[in-house]
Structure prediction request, 257 residues.
Amino acid sequence: MIELRELSKSYAARGPAVQGLNLTVASGEFLVLAGPSGCGKTTTLTMINRLTEPSGGTVLIDGVDARSSDPVSLRRRIGFVFQDIGLFPHLNVAENAGIVLRLLHKSPAEIGARVDELLALVHLPAQEFRGVFPATLSGGQRQRVGVARALAASPRIMLMDEPFGAIDPITRDGLASDYRQIHERLGLTTILVTHDMTEAILLADRIALMREGRLVQVGTTNELISAPADDFVRAMMESPRRRSEALAAALKSGRRA
Ligand SMILES: Nc1ncnc2c1ncn2[C@@H]1O[C@H](COP(=O)(O)OP(=O)(O)O)[C@@H](O)[C@H]1O
Ligand SMILES: [Mg+2]
Prediction:
C-alpha cells in the first residue's frame, strides 16, 4: 500500500508544484494519475521514490515512511519507467535488462536465467533479442526492454511516467494492454502517469485527476463520470467520448473523402 499524506513540493523561487495531496493506493491496484501538462504529475510520482524530495508531508510505503529508507535501496524496490527510457547504447538487450542484477552482484547464471524470463514477460523472445543492441530496436521494443529492466529486481511497486507517450498509437495500445496483463500476472501495484484520458480510462482501476498541483478527485471511471466533483472533472472525463463522437461525425459527413 502507498499512502501520500499532505504531500507538497515547491521548487525554489517558484509557486507550489504540488499542494496538500492525500491519496492511498491499495496493494494490487492500478492507479492512473492524470491531468493536464504541468499540473504536478511527475513531481508527485517522483516524490514516491525520492527522486524528488518533498517540501512537506509524508510518503508511506507499506506503512513505512519513505524518509527512513535509503533512496538507493528504495529505488531498487520500486520499478520506474519513463518516456524515452534511455537504454545504454553500448550494452545489448540482455545486458540492459539485467543491469540492476549486475549491480546487485548476482551470478552470471542467475542473471541469464532471470533476463530470459523477463524478456519472455515483455514479449521479446530471448533467443531473438538477447544479443541485439538498442539502436536497431523500434521505440516500442526499447520501451519493452525498459519495462523488463524495471522489473528485474522483482519490485512489488511500479511507477510509470508517460511510459508510452513517445510511441506511435498502434504500438502504444499493444504495449499498454500487455503491461496491464503483466501488472495482473505479477500482482503489482502500479501508478501510471498520463495526460491521455483515453489511456487512463482503458487502463485504470481508479483515476486520480490533478489540476494545478492539487488532487481534484479520485475514483473509478464510472464514479468520475457519474458524479464529477466539478466542471474540470466532467470535461476531462467526457473528452475521449467527445473526440470519438467528433471523429464519427467527421467520417460520416465524408470529410475524409
Ligand atoms: N526541477 C524543477 N525545477 C523547477 N520547477 C519544476 C521542476 N520540475 C517541475 N517544475 C514545475 O512544477 C510544475 C509541475 O511540473 P510536473 O510535475 O513536471 O508536471 P506534469 O508532470 O503534470 O507535467 C510545473 O510548473 C513545472 O514547471
Ligand atoms: Mg510530467
In short: The chain has eleven helices and ten strands.
